Amino acid sequence: MKKRKWDKKHFCVFCCKPYSKIAQHLESAHDGEMEVAHALSLKKKSKKRKEIFDRLRKAGDYEHNMEVLKDRRGSLVVNKRAKHGETAPGDTFLPCSNCRGFYPKKYIWRHAKLCKPMSVSSCKLQHVRESLALLPVKEFVSKQMKGILDSMTQDDIALMIRNDDYMLRFIEHFISKAGHSTHSERYIAQKMRELGRLLKEFRKIT
User: Fold this and answer.
1) Sorting pLDDT into bands at 50, 70 and 90, what band is 173?
2) What domain of life does the UniProt record list for this protein's source (predicted)?
3) Distances (CA, A) of 189 to 29, 146, 174
4) What is the radius of gyration, based on Cα positions, of the chain?
5) pTM of the predicted model as reported, rounded to 2 decimal places
6) Rounded-to-integer distance, Cα 192 and Cα 170, Å
7) How many Cα atoms sit within 13 Å of 145 on the Cβ side?
């Protein structure tokens, strides 16, 4: 995926258009929507009102970002921007499984701790996997292959594999030959990482 440039506008969850002042747009154009109407009934600077508009803002950006990732065109709208003058590849960001905001993959678990109460089983890997489950996959990717992708250690190699059509198609063919056993899936995941490392080294010299 090409590197994304930053966009200060946010997308409306109702009309899917970008606005620099999304809260004002929601108030003026969609005051008849139930959630907007509820927010407007609250005190102007109340915490609850802000939370509702934040949720609507992230929901609109999430829908837009899913289209960007699916079509591999356009700019991601994220909640934590790169430093001034810096760009970042779109596949380094993941959506929070709770609020749908996009955050850097390496910090998504930290955000999740603040975004919702931690359960006994909550951990860094769990939050990353929950976020990955929200990302779109290629139409030709089978349910079995998606499960294998989600079970892998989610580093730069795993993300590279997810975004390379040729490798995904090759692996799908490999899966059809290897079968559906747990042992086969572990073997496939291992081979996928080996291919991913080769692809990473190849890209360094091209």
Assistant:
1) confident
2) Eukaryota
3) 49, 11, 11
4) 19
5) 0.57
6) 10
7) 23
What 3-state class would DSSP assign to 97? coil
Side chain identity, residue 154: Q
pLDDT tens, position by position, 29-88:
998 888 899 999 999 999 999 999 999 999 899 889 988 887 888 889 998 765 544 444
Percentages helix, strand, coil for the chain (3-state, rounded to 5) are 55, 5, 35
> Which runs of consecutive H residues, i.e. helices, occur in 74-181?
108-115, 124-132, 143-151, 156-162, 165-178
What's the rounded Cα separation, in Å, for the pair 187 and 152? 12
Q: Which of 142, 134, 199 is nearest to 166 (CA)?
A: 199
Burial class (CB in 10 A: 0-12, 13-18, 19+), 162: buried
Which among 121, 119, 112, 196 is positioned nearest to 161, based on CA atoms?
196
Q: What is the pLDDT of residue 116?
A: 64
Higher pLDDT residue, 90 or 21?
A: 21
For β-strands 3-4 and 88-89, DSSP reports them as antiparallel
**Which tokens hold the place of 41?**
């009934």
109-151 pLDDT tens trace = 888 888 864 443 445 555 566 666 667 677 788 888 888 887 7
- Residue count of the chain: 206
